Amino acid sequence: MSLDSITNELTEQKSIIVAVVGAGISKASGMPTFRGEDGMWNQYHAQDLATPYAFNNNPNLVWEWYRARMRILLEAQPNPAHHALTMLEKEGILLGVITQNVDGLQEIAKTKNIVEVHGRIRYARCQDCDFIQRWDNKDFAKEKRKLPKCPRCEDSLLRPDVVWFGEPLNQIKWQKAVEWVNQANILLIIGTSGVVHPVASLPWAAKKNGAKLVEFNIEETPLTSLSDYSLFGPCEQILPEFSETLIKKYAERYK
Length: 255
Ligand SMILES: [Zn+2]
Fold this sequence. Notes:
CATH superfamily of the largest domain: TPP-binding domain
Bound molecules: zinc ion
Number of strands: 9
Number of helices: 10
Distance between the termini: 26 Å
Number of domains: 2
Strand order of the largest sheet: 3-2-1-7-8-9
Helix content: 25-40%
Structural class: alpha/beta
Largest sheet: 6 strands, parallel
CATH class of the largest domain: Alpha Beta
């Protein structure tokens, strides 16, 4: 089905659109592979370091690893796919973006309504109070052997504000994601194969509510057969094309 016919059908009525986003959207953002940076990290797996156990056991090691990741992430910029979602939001067509990515690129692309279900690597939070601090700057990323502490609670360590292996999702964020999906008439599923739970349940929930599913991916995924429409290609190409066409047709019909 052509982009033209898809966007014609999707604009037959005024809709509320929600996007569920995965790693595929950030592929074009120029993140060099992590293993290239420093041989020292080759011996570790994320499953060994991104856990509450690892942090309690050796917070220095875990922070050094996150600092190494941040030094790489600081070179990455949002790509046209991130900006396409911001554009849809500005037009009032998109209710919000539910992202599984912790890279923060959707926020840098100035999307306002984002739920980062797996957390945000660019922020640190206190283990004991709700203090939150941005730490995605060069100085912080370079500091060696210095454990960040909470300015409010004496001696409490800050930790990366991400969901670690073995931890539950933040329930407030998750509830918001579910509420958005329940309101959606159209769910965009972007750069994710939808196999990681509980996010994988969102397309099924939307479908059950009668929403149309539109998939954007480089190749077929387990969600392709569930989707009403699938657009295959690099996210940074197909998503801007889709958004521009949709916005144009919306404007023709409803403005
Ligand atoms: Zn604190």
